[in-house]
Write a structure and sequence with these properties.
39% of the residues lie in helices and 19% in strands. By secondary structure, it is of the alpha/beta class. Helix 2 (52-59) runs parallel beside helix 4, helix 4 packs parallel to helix 5 and helix 8 packs across helix 10. The radius of gyration is 19 Å and the shape is globular. The strands form three sheets. It has a seven-stranded parallel β-sheet with strand order 3-2-1-4-5-6-10, sandwiched between helices. Strands 7, 9, 11 and 13 form a four-stranded mixed β-sheet that branches. A two-stranded parallel ribbon has the order 8-12. The chain binds nicotinamide-adenine-dinucleotide (NAD). Nicotinamide-adenine-dinucleotide (NAD) is lined by residues 6-7, 9-13, 30-36, 51-53, 70-72, 74, 89, 93, 112, 114, 165, 167-168, 179, 184. Nicotinamide-adenine-dinucleotide is lined by residues 6-7, 9-13, 30-36, 51-53, 70-72, 74, 89, 93, 112, 114, 165, 167-168, 179, 184.
């Protein structure tokens, strides 16, 4: 298929673009490099630098079989301080992309949605039928895009799939996590192991979990990429399908830090901090729907393997 990948110079987009190329697809990457890196764009694709909101109408008339839309602003704290950046950068941009998709008759759209659309779920593992009550602006903007996709599928026959990722981690060769503002636990802990930070903060150790720290679900980025390939195959005209993607196993913050200690051989000092508002005790996905309908099975569900791949990538980037 000929596919447009928005945000393909970012973390998840670069890994997915690489996997799509490996699978034989013809890939065009668009990225404005606002948080991405030009050297993260995989070989074997065409790269167009620019804002997808501006460029979609110029590119899509070439004829595409599908769009995979990763481009977004995705920092929760920033979304609370600067909501306009998120309502424009995520919602307005995606609406302009959706309109271009409609005008130029692109049949498929696969979108990077998020667990943040659910807010603080009442039950875990979280099913796709759980209530969507985002507790931050980032999650609210992603939910708005999901809702727009439902309307476009119904009205215009678009084959639309939203993949709601939980915590993405790991790396694929030279493609990995390189956020300038890093908010994700595993890369932060690995920065401590590299000597780039003194310690890692644990926010709360009085949660009703085994060791008192929060429990989260980590999905290896290559397993996530494989789900995108399957989503392209399973997208149905006129339907908007939503799938949660995690590996279904929760790991506590303390377990993640301990695994990072074992993988890196570094002591990784920790500091204790107060709970952060809006942090649920346990956030674990039920990915049963993707497993059943896509026959998707995470190949790298083991936390040690996820951390090892991230560490190999991090050390290589640091020249360590
Ligand atoms: N990383 C995670 O754990 C996670 C979890 C849930 C959902 N997501 C979603 O997955 C997607 C990818 O996340 P990521 O971690 O790779 O982020 P990232 O910041 O590394 O990648 C986003 C890319 O989009 C580009 N971009 C942003 N706005 C653009 C625009 N208007 N036009 C063109 N390019 C633009 C950026 O330059 C960047 O390269 C995002 O939509 C994010 O919300 C990520």
């Amino acid at each position: 298929m000929k596919l447009l990948v928005t945000g393909g110079a970012g973390y998840v987009g670069s890994v997915c673009a690489a996997r799509l190329i490996e699978a034989g697809h013809d890939v065009v990457v668009v990225d404005d490099l606002s948080t991405g890196h030009v050297d993260a764009v995989p070989d074997g694709c065409r790269f167009v630098e620019g804002d997808i909101a501006e460029i979609a109408d110029t590119l899509l008339p070439e004829g595409f079989d599908g769009v995979l839309h990763f481009a977004a602003k995705s920092l929760v704290a920033e979304s609370m301080r600067e909501p306009a950046k998120y309502w424009y950068g995520n919602v307005v941009t995606s609406l302009r992309l959706l309109e271009a998709i409609r005008r130029h008759s692109v049949p498929r759209l696969v979108f990077s949605s998020t667990a943040a659309t659910y807010g603080e779920p009442e039950t875990v593992p979280v099913l796709e039928t759980a209530a969507t009550r985002p507790t931050n602006t980032y999650g609210a903007t992603k939910l708005a895009i999901d809702n727009a996709m439902t309307s476009y599928a119904a009205a215009h026959g678009l084959a639309a799939v939203s993949l709601r990722y939980f915590n993405v981690a790991g790396a694929h060769g030279r493609f990995g996590e390189r956020h300038t503002t890093e908010t994700h636990l595993i890369p932060i802990v690995l920065q401590v192991a590299l000597g780039q930070r003194d310690s890692v903060a644990i926010y709360g150790e009085d949660y009703p979990t085994g060791d008192g720290s929060c429990v989260r679900d980590y999905i290896h980025v290559t397993d996530l990429a494989d789900a995108h390939l399957l989503a392209l195959d399973h997208a149905e005209p006129g339907e908007h399908q939503i799938y949660n993607l995690g590996n279904g196993t929760g790991f506590s913050v303390k377990q993640v830090i301990e695994t990072c200690r074992q993988v890196t051989g570094h002591e990784i000092p920790v500091t204790m901090a107060a709970r952060r508002p809006g942090d649920p005790a346990v956030l674990v996905a039920s990915s049963d729907k993707a497993r059943t309908e896509f026959k998707w099975e995470p190949a790298k569900a083991d936390l040690t393997e996820i951390v090892r791949d991230a560490w190999t990538f991090t050390k290589a980037r640091a020249g360590a």
